[in-house]
Design goal:
single chain, 19% strand, binds magnesium ion, globular, 9 helices, 4-stranded parallel sheet, Rossmann fold, binds adenosine monophosphate
């Protein structure tokens, strides 16, 4: 298959309407989209990404009215989160309507819903005229793409189209909150932090499931975010020594004077998050063997960053 690269949201949306799959930028990472109501198109996403069938997709909407097409009810707490955080990098999980084909939600009776705030994403979704399910536009297990070139790297020839935009603003995937039961549960950390969520919903719980617990958020049990290089988490001032620095890299907030092959010092947790996945990919291009990643405080987006680092470090 030839993958069309276009800057036109209308042209990209035409391919969605014809049952194709299209990568598009959002404020979090690039997504790989299909019409939520077209089961054959949704199946193409799983095939292109080599994504396990038990990992549910998030439906992206252009406006609040589309949420009603996907769900049976919006509980009060979900409505509060929607009022406060939509459009933006928050996904709410709600009871799904029967119109949604089971393949889109990995057979669950719930569906994750998000309204991006990214201008090009919104133009694209509006032109599609339907909610669009989209996981991150990478081969399953790899770091999420934050540039259209990273999408090419993983999916060229496997998808119909890439809607070409800038590098994504946040660089980590959306925060996911399950609102289908009481109390609401934070399933996945993101740039909307637990501190912000608890200001809106003080009863918010945090998911503590282990790898084996597939019930609440099946996707969390899969291998994720991994470059080919080995990930080693280090404390800010920990000594890193040895003769093997030559083929290693470092990313963090604290200045280092060692002889790493590649170093990225960021000035904030936000910049670290923005850079992380592209740094992973760049290290793979350079055939770096190991990447030292500095641990940071788990407040604000730091919690999401540390979650991704821990998962990336799992082998
Ligand atoms: P990705 O599209 O790669 O960012 O992955 C989406 C993630 O959102 C999944 O791996 C799940 O962890 C979570 N998710 C999406 N839909 C649901 C749902 N209906 N119930 C629970 N978790 C969900
Ligand atoms: Mg993903």
């Amino acid at each position: 298959m030839k993958t069309l690269v276009t800057g036109s949201p209308a042209e990209a949306a035409e391919l969605i309407k014809k049952g194709g799959i299209v990568a598009f930028p959002t404020e979090t990472v690039y997504g790989l989209g299909a019409n939520v109501f077209d089961a054959d198109a949704v199946a193409k996403i799983f095939a292109a990404k080599l994504r396990p069938a038990d990992n549910p997709l998030i439906a992206h909407v252009a406006n609040l009215a589309q949420i009603a097409e996907l769900t049976v009810e919006i509980p009060q707490i979900a409505q509060k989160l929607i009022d406060q955080f939509f459009p933006g990098p928050l996904t709410v999980v709600l009871k799904r309507s029967d119109a949604v084909p089971p393949i889109a939600t990995a057979g669950l009776d719930t569906i994750g819903v998000r309204m991006p705030r990214h201008t090009l994403a919104r133009e694209f979704l509006a032109a599609c005229g339907t909610p669009v399910v989209a996981p991150s536009a990478n081969i399953s297990g790899r770091p999420s793409p934050t540039t259209w070139q990273a999408v090419i790297e993983d999916l060229d020839g496997r998808i119909d189209c890439i809607l070409q935009g800038e590098a994504t603003e946040i660089g980590l995937e959306s925060t996911v909150v399950d609102c289908s039961a009481q109390p609401p549960v934070l399933l996945r950390q993101g740039s909307v932090s637990i501190e912000e969520l608890r200001r809106a919903a003080p009863e918010m719980a945090v998911y503590q499931g282990s790898h084996g617990d597939a019930v609440r958020s099946p996707g969390l049990k899969h291998k994720h975010y991994s470059p080919r290089a080995e990930i080693r988490l280090v404390d800010p001032w920990a000594a890193i020594s040895g003769s093997d620095l030559e083929n290693t890299a470092y990313i963090g907030l604290t200045l280092r004077e060692s002889e790493f092959a590649k170093v990225r010092i960021c000035s904030s947790a936000e910049e670290y998050s923005h850079e992380l996945f592209e740094f992973f990919r760049e290290c793979d291009r350079l055939k770096i063997a190991a990447i030292y990643c500095e641990r940071i405080a788990e407040t604000g987006i730091g919690a999401a960053l540390m979650d991704r680092l821990r998962r990336a470090a799992e082998r």
